[in-house]
Amino acid sequence: MKDEKKAPKLRFKGFTDDWEQVKYGEIFQRRSKMGVSTPALPSVEYDDINPGMGTLNKEPKSKGTSKRGIHFNPGDVLFGKLRPYLKNWLFACFEGVAVGDFWVLTSSKIDHGFTYSLIQAPEFQYIANLSSGSKMPRSDWGLVSNARTFIPTNLSEQKSISSVLFGLDTAITLHEEKKRQLERLKSALLQKMFADKSGYPAVRFKGFDDIWDQEKLNSLVRLHRGLTYSPNNVQDSGIRILRSSNILDGQFVMTDDDIFVKSSVVNIPTVKDGDILITAANGSIKLVGKHAIISGISENTAVSGGFMLVGSSRIPDFVNSLFDTSWYQRFIRKYVTGGNGSIGNLKKNDLDKQYVKVPTTSEQERIGEFFREIDQLIINNQIKHEKLLELKKFLLQNMFI
């Protein structure tokens, strides 16, 4: 019977040979030749790499300064040895200079693409993270180079593995970029589709041309503070308490960390789908004001916690979008108290008395619907992105020994 340790759990059809056990130092060589960056020989630094993604966040040739580092060639692998848990790695598609704490890895014994895949595999990551130093941990080449791993001896199998992982990386990057583009589009439209001091937005849907009226915010949304409770009221089931952790990237989520209280202590109305949940107080002042529309909640099953506000509106999508505009950001900066170690606090009365520009009900509905659709596109793209990341993690765990 074949020794399971000499073959990965997941393998391409047609490959049956045992994998060979080798030391990393036998298959990886570290480049040491130094060079100075020029416009034709760009530099790559830690801050240029998107951690864990293996992509660059800026055009290397756009830098104007010359820096000294390790010379690398196309096909080499840059591995950030400083704080290796940050996963600063890059497959070089161009010639350049690696500035900072990088290993520049190459190999004459295995496929270059497989080298890049292998340094992402769990076994290499485990060894690389057995680092020295506490404040500035670095991977130990002496430890890594003498550690053993298994590799396929068949070059075609190496290339098949790296090919599928490179393909996944491309798909992950595309979805990440699409999400950024949607977020930039939303930000631009929020600036254009809400009225300025003139009472007219720069961009509007066909058929709407009335001036926007000025109204108090409490005419659009009714706000109330959440439930104050004691630790003695907490139990394993009952009425769910919604907190700041139930708002993630502008979306409402229910988590395994949600807490519950006895129904007998609840003396405020329960929330319902369509209500707007707002963080009104938090130890991190940056989180105060974040908001999301509640969805997926059964009736009479949840209330907001004491550090939260809940808003009820006839057109919640419009109000929630209004809270994404520059007006709301200015309000938060001006009215939220706290900082310097104290809890940031947003007062209900301060928000209630704010004046905002408001269109007709039908235009509110159209704007709210439009931004809800954009938000859904962003969510759908994020879900696909997360599934691709999960798939890559699964493949890295199962396509290597």
TrEMBL record:
Short name of any one Pfam family annotated for the protein: Methylase_S
GO molecular function: DNA binding
GO biological process: DNA restriction-modification system
Residue ranges of every copy of the Type I restriction modification DNA specificity domain listed in the record: 212-385
UniProt keyword annotations, A-Z: DNA-binding, Restriction system
UniProt xrefs under InterPro entries: Restrct_endonuc_typeI_TRD, Restrct_endonuc_typeI_TRD_sf, Type-I_RS_S_subunit
SUPFAM superfamilies: DNA methylase specificity domain (SSF116734)
Membership in a protein family: Belongs to the type-I restriction system S methylase family.
PANTHER family xref list: TYPE I RESTRICTION ENZYME MJAVIII SPECIFICITY SUBUNIT, TYPE-1 RESTRICTION ENZYME ECOKI SPECIFICITY PROTEIN
Name the UniProt record assigns to this protein: HsdS-type I specificity subunit
Organism per entry: Lactobacillus delbrueckii subsp. lactis
Gene that produces this protein: hsdS
